[in-house]
Design a protein that fits this description.
Layout: H1 5-19, H2 40-46, E1 52-56, E2 60-67, E3 70-77, H3 80-90, E4 96-100, E5 103-107, H4 109-119, E6 122-125
Antiparallel strand pairs: 1-2, 2-3, 3-5, 4-5, 4-6
Helix pairs in contact: 1-3
């Protein structure tokens, strides 16, 4: 199955809107391990999740995962460029992204922070263009988390 960049961004954005909700959480950035690598199944196994595959294409493999910390999207990419293109499109919808080499986990701030404690990686924050809240969009409070918004179209 071949997917265009626009379709990949739309799939990621829809998944983000389905899974995430506003919420804060404590951050523990002191305990970040070396960034994990491997297949989607391997990464899911590292965080005790049985992946529910949503997209299984040459360019991207994407699954919904759930563990004791909550739900998240886990995606792996064939290329670094494909990953960056997907992130650039998906981040327009807001949310929290844990980024490793050719993989991304997407979820609430608390979930992504918990995953970072196992998988390592870098946390990136999406931008919200809805104008629905004031504030800087900083990840510090969790109060500006935009994922509770509906009505986005891909």
């Amino acid at each position: 199955m071949r997917m265009t960049r626009g379709k990949l961004a739309a799939v990621g954005a829809v998944a983000l809107l389905v899974l995430t909700g506003c919420g804060g959480g404590d951050k523990d950035e002191n305990a970040v391990p070396e960034t994990a690598t491997g297949s989607l199944e391997h990464l899911a196994g590292e965080v005790n999740c049985k992946p529910n595959m949503q997209t299984d294409a040459d360019e991207i493999r994407q699954a919904i995962c759930k563990n004791t910390d909550g739900k998240f999207i886990l995606a792996t990419f064939a290329t670094d460029r494909g990953q960056r293109d997907w992130l650039n499109g998906a981040k327009d919808y807001g949310g929290y992204y844990l980024v490793g080499r050719k993989w991304v986990a997407v979820g609430e701030e608390k979930m992504v922070t918990a995953l970072r404690g196992t998988l390592g990686g870098d946390m990136e924050i999406g931008t919200d263009h809805s104008g629905g809240h004031s504030g800087s969009g900083s990840a510090g409070t969790g109060t500006e988390h935009p994922s509770g918004h509906t009505g986005h179209s891909g």
